[in-house]
Amino acid sequence: MTRREMVHLYENLLNGCEVVESQLLPCVTEHLLVEIVQLTVTDITKAIKWLQCSYLYVRMKKNPENYSIKKGISGDRLVKHVQDICVKKVNELSQHQMVEIDEDGFLLSPLDPGRLMTKYYLRFDTMKQIMRTPENCCLEDALHVICSAEEIACADILINYFSV
User: Model-level pTM?
Assistant: First the structure.
């Protein structure tokens, strides 16, 4: 099921010799938005609970330094840290019109740009750039937005090609 040179790595993982860390933190905004769009997360309390049920939270408790958390933060302080992450991410999504927050700052509902972002698997930074693009932009400007997207691996080649 794997190449010979990878067998040793997978055996170490199975035997507990290799520690696997969460990769959720850098893309938590995108994953949180998916949960909001799917209506799994409908309020800030559920957003916090969702993050506390993640492997990221498990690893934050075990190895906080790896996630830029000061050593010694645990228990209530770690819960507060997770709450702060959720509130910050939800506020960013709201500021960029991906989700709507009710007047109480509690209930969350997806907006069309957020639905489109999740439907087409776009990164948050890419969607922000798309949202900043004027409706009446020229084709070259639209291509620059698309080609500068992190999702496009050959963006430098395309940008150079269309800049000529």
Answer: 0.82
